[in-house]
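Quick start: read one record
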Amino acid sequence: MTIPGPRERPGRQSPFGLRQLALCFGLIAALICGAGLTVRAMATAAADRPVSALAAGAALFAAAAVLRRGHRLRQAVGVPASVPTVAEPSLMPAYESMSPEEFEEAVAELCTRDGCSDVQVTGGAGDLGADVVATAPDGRRVVIQCKRYAPDHKVGSQELQRFGGTCFAVHGAHTATVVTTSAFTQPGAAYADRCGIGCFGAEELAAWAAGTGPSPWEAER
């Protein structure tokens, strides 16, 4: 007669499984108690200092909104979900590593994300300076020229003059912007200011992408 071993006896659980089950119940109970204490503390704070409580709630809401837009940005530029987007400058290497064509597509994705319709990537031979065209949420025609440059390669006056000669007269822009991963020379920025052309350098692009700054058509207002 063979005596069954411990694994063959029906209805028996190992001590390890029981310990794990007890630990899970303990963690759930701790979380429930912690949540209750947190809600109670917040209610007490709201009664004592309603203005502070409202300010804290608004800050939490704003932080959640930034995180949501950061997640959409990861999808737009192809950044893995595990890569944090806490600081705006951390987004720039993703753009700088793109090809010019990929950068145009990424800018178009940002336009779509922020409510533009009829978004088209028109860059290439014979584009006459318009790389991305779209219709803003308020109906204005948006024309963007994309310059995926290294940080030490600034967009100069001649490039802005070429764009200025076509963005309004040829493409019918209501709002025209040059978006770059670098910056603008002083003469170039001065020319753009005189002609009503928006200049989005690395800082403005990072803020737009992270949702902490305006889009080009909003900045034009």
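The beta strands are 117-121, 132-135, 141-147, 175-180, 197-200.
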